[in-house]
Design a protein that fits this description.
Largest sheet of chain B: none
Largest interface: A-B, 113 and 109 residues
Structural class of chain B: mainly alpha
Distance between the termini of chain B: 23 Å
Oligomer: heterodimer
Number of helices of chain A: 16
Largest sheet of chain A: none
Distance between the termini of chain A: 34 Å
Chain lengths: ~325, ~230
């Protein structure tokens, strides 16, 4: 505070008053807003693009499915190299020296190779070829598993149109058999429920595994790109169709559009750090010198209270 | 507006009663004529003041439409035309809620409405705004459609990067559903109630450069809008 004079706004108002019916105002506002909302809902409706199933992905883009499954095995998928909270296979993001992601620990343990590929395949019965492939794979050393999966992953990248059916012969071990059988499982629809319900529970509400597997694919990202939802298209502040979406997230998604965040491996952590500081500043505006003085220097208040100032000025000059 | 004198213990108050003390304190802080006044200072006549009550009105529609959706469960709106319409009502009431609230917030900022010991009124309003963003976000990730899949898988990276995702898993539909329909609405209800009580407790802030008697003063003698 610059002045020792008591803030006059702290004293109870003793000046002129006018009738004001708060309850009537609220009732009228509820009625008006309700009618406006009903009109908007009737005219513009709301988006409801059906969710992507694992089955739909496997049927629509089997090459992408097999490629993704292979990257889960060789540890190069997003999930397989993510780090906390899913696994220890990535360093996690930092804000300077502050590694909050790592500090929080692995609290939702996920092993993509096992949870997305090997585990579901082990539930299949009556398929001797698959059983033999799984036995050979699981009995091999970790280095051998890695070599087979990496070789197959590389071969797919080099195949015409990256089509797994056109891969040249190579040292892939049982991996092609496993991924082909996983594709069949996915195309049948069985993998959808197996990923949601990997244990013996009947009721499930946690979609972490199928969503992580889906988000490792190129298929989901391509669909999002077509719906102007990817990160460089202001991402999750949008929604499908021409709806306003979460427009209030504009500042959060804005940072993802500019350097250095577009090229930083720590972009998420840095942007969250910035938004936490800005949010705290918003909450504490009344206590931040300089910021709290802006209203006096940008005299919009004169426009808001122009009638009162004019009336009071006239009274004092008469 | 005159300020009522403090409420003294009544003759029949039970000595040492916490209940009687709370009643006296409540009436002292918010006597009925201050809680629900039928007059306001003459300066409360700008259109800007409407956006506070419009925000509240939109919140009423948000809660009402959300309650109907909750009654029928999260799958209803996908296979019922009435359910889809109710989802649309919920969506548009949320859009209007934020539209009104942002204008209300900017209006209060440029009026420096935290003056006169009203800092906590601003704080509760800003916290309500941030809590509303969280509530709306959880609503988007429990739609159980393509939007929710994409938004959840994108948002997880930000949450995980600062350690929040380890405890608050946006890919867990059940967890997000309960936060959206129970925990966050309760939090917003409490914060908004506190905000409204503080507005009524302190009254609407006077124009900058005007004293409590309604006279223009030299603004240089006042605080820096603190």
């Amino acid at each position: 505070m610059r002045s020792t004079v008591r803030d006059p706004a702290a004293s109870p108002w003793r000046g002129p008053t006018r009738p004001y019916d708060l309850v009537k105002e609220l009732v009228i506002a509820v009625v008006v807003v309700s009618l406006l909302v009903l009109a908007l809902a009737a005219v513009f409706s709301s988006p409801d693009e059906p969710g992507v199933t694992i089955q739909r992905w496997a049927r629509a883009d089997p090459s992408d499915f097999i490629t993704t499954a292979t990257t889960e095995l060789d540890g190069t998928s997003i999930s397989a190299s993510y780090g906390p909270p899913y696994n220890h296979d990535g360093p996690g993001q930092k804000i300077g020296p502050l590694a909050l992601q790592k500090l929080a620990g692995v609290r939702i343990p996920i092993d993509p190779a096992h949870d997305f590929v090997i585990g579901p395949l082990q539930t299949v019965t009556g398929d001797r070829t698959l059983a033999g492939a799984l036995t050979r794979y699981t009995r091999a050393s970790a280095a051998q598993q890695q070599r087979w999966a990496s070789n197959y992953d590389q071969a797919i990248q080099n195949a015409p149109a990256q089509d797994p059916t056109q891969v040249r012969a190579g040292d892939y071990g049982p991996v092609p058999t496993m991924t082909a059988r996983l594709l069949q499982l996915a195309q049948s629809g069985a993998l959808d429920s197996q990923l949601v319900n990997p244990g013996s529970g009947f009721y499930q509400t946690d979609y972490t595994r199928p969503l992580l597997f889906l988000s490792d694919s190129g298929y989901l990202a391509n669909l999002a790109q077509a719906q102007h939802l990817s990160g460089e298209q202001w991402g999750m502040s949008n929604e499908t169709g021409s709806y306003p979406g979460q427009a209030w997230l504009w500042l959060y998604t804005f940072w993802y559009q500019i350097r250095p965040f577009t090229h930083s491996g720590n972009a998420d952590a840095l942007i969250w750090g910035i938004m936490l500081v800005l949010s705290l500043a918003l909450v504490l505006v009344p206590y931040i010198p300089g910021i709290r003085s802006i209203p006096k220097r940008v005299p919009l208040y004169r426009l808001i209270w122009r009638d009162y100032y004019r009336q009071t000025d006239n009274i004092e000059h008469n | 507006m005159t300020v009522p004198p403090p409420v003294r213990p009544a003759a029949d108050d039970v000595p040492g009663s916490w209940t009687a003390a709370l009643r006296r304190r409540a009436i002292d802080e918010l006597p009925p004529e201050r809680l629900l006044p039928d007059r306001q200072p003459a300066y409360v006549s700008s259109w800007v003041y409407l956006f506070g009550v419009l925000t509240l009105a939109a919140l009423v529609v948000v809660i009402a439409s959300g309650s109907i959706l909750a009654l029928k469960g999260p799958e209803w709106w996908h296979h019922s035309s009435l359910g889809h319409f109710m989802n649309s009502v919920h969506l548009w009431s949320v859009e209007l809620f934020f539209f009104f609230m942002v204008i209300h917030l900017w209006g209060q900022f440029f009026m420096a409405s935290w003056r006169g010991n009203r800092g906590l009124t601003w704080v509760t309003g800003a916290v309500a705004f941030l809590a509303s963003i969280g509530t709306a976000f959880t609503g988007y990730v429990i739609q159980s459609n393509f939007d929710s899949q994409w938004i959840a898988t994108q948002a997880k990276d930000g949450m995980n990067a600062v350690g929040i995702g380890a405890f608050w898993n946006v890919l867990d539909f059940g967890q997000m559903l309960l936060w959206h329909v129970l925990l966050l609405p309760i939090a917003i209800g409490i914060i908004v109630a506190l905000h409204l009580l503080m507005v009524r407790r302190h009254g609407v802030v006077a124009p900058i450069g005007v004293d409590a008697d309604g006279n223009l003063i030299d603004s240089g003698t006042t605080t820096d809008a603190s």
